[in-house]
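Hi support team,

I'm filing this because I wasn't sure whether my run with DLL finished correctly. The job status page said complete, but I'd like someone to confirm that the output block is well-formed before I use it downstream. Pasting the exact inputs I used:
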Amino acid sequence: MSTQAATQGSQSFMFDPDVETMPRDELTALQTGRLKQTLERVYANVPHYRKKFDAAGVTPAAFKVLSDITRFPFTQKIDLRDNYPFGLFAVPREQVSRLHASSGTTGKPTVVGYTKGDLDTWADLMARCFASGGALPGDIVHNAYGYGLFTGGLGAHYGAERLGCTVVPISGGGTERQVTLLADFKAKVLCATPSYALNIAEVAQTMGVDIRQSSLRLGMFGAEPWSDALRHDLEDKLGIKAIDIYGLSEIMGPGVACECHAVQSGLHGWEDHFLFETIDPETLQPLPIGATGELVITTLTKEALPMIRYRTRDITRLSNEPCACGRTHVRIMRVTGRNDDMLIIRGVNVYPSQLEAVLIGFPGLAPHYQIVLTREGALDAITVEVEFDPGAPLGDAECARKSKEVTHHIKSLIGVTCKVVVKSPGEVPRSQGKAVRVVDQRKKGN
Ligand code: DLL
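And here is everything the job wrote out:
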């Protein structure tokens, strides 16, 4: 990767101007050529794609300009499951250097594979993300993403190494030890889910360690939806800049898109390797840029597991407004949630991250919450469990008052009626990776 040092304000960071500031017409030409090759490759090598293209009455020859992609069928998680474990690979299995898999709550896991070339691209793109976030060669990167089949740990690991950083491969869990090593090794960059970063901040406080005074200055947080309210809370508690990083295993892992240090508004999606679309999840029709819908991604360079029009289920909008950082790649605005995580409470659609935005920073509350869904007669009911701030303990009567106050705020800001239970510090479960924000007790008949 040909990165070079650049300076923006007082902050210097690594940047690849040739690629990251490529004019739109050059990006379009690059994407068109790469996509044509990808379509040809999957049609020739993956029976599943050939069958689906044939059924839809399209062949790679039908693809001339980027908008022709809308003539091709979508790919979904179910296609990976149906072709478990290696059926969607476009290269002989012997050429696959690494496998990752999602644990999957039900049924078979989703298996993804990488050639040596794919691993190389992934490390490059993750290095690009670290650099865009403001990491520098030589920085110590404390990597608390889980190592193993989850793509977070190894994805961040090789990207940070590629940029020239020193990696601490600590993985998730053992939070007191994390706090000790963060301080002892003088890490500059923390990689974690936002909910686990919050857990680390809280444990540090209980241990009497002031992370604000440590050498930490950057957080690369992703793998789950989070709000700006949580960003501000983490920036304040950890004394850092918190950068949003996005990705998914089916497409590559972390590093598909990342915010820039300069602007922190929307994640630059790396268009030299991916094509981004948004669709209406109901009608499946493409949406104009700027409209909110489901993000659909096509890979342009993946060798082992190319993905054509993969329906991510993530809800967002795209922006091609010029970014003050100079990067030209499209911005994926903050992912509010997944359409399969959307709660429909008495006719009102709500994402957990919308509730988070109300709860975090609410006077007297700690930033920990969980949403419990139950059935009351024929209707779904929602209980939001929160904790009072340990610095300002509340008695029973005050908890009841606080609960009414929060209920009122949620109703007026989001329009849903829910029960709020204010608990004591430590009663809401803490995250060690991806937080479990919603506990659905409806299926148990409660
Ligand atoms: O979570 C990859 C990753 C690791 C991304 C570390 C960022 C950092 P999966 O386990 O396949 O891969 O989960 C992908 O997580 O479709 C989104 O629903 C969600 N997600 C990932 N990043 C973000 C983010 C990794 N920044 C799924 N904001 C995706 C909101 C995110 N949701």
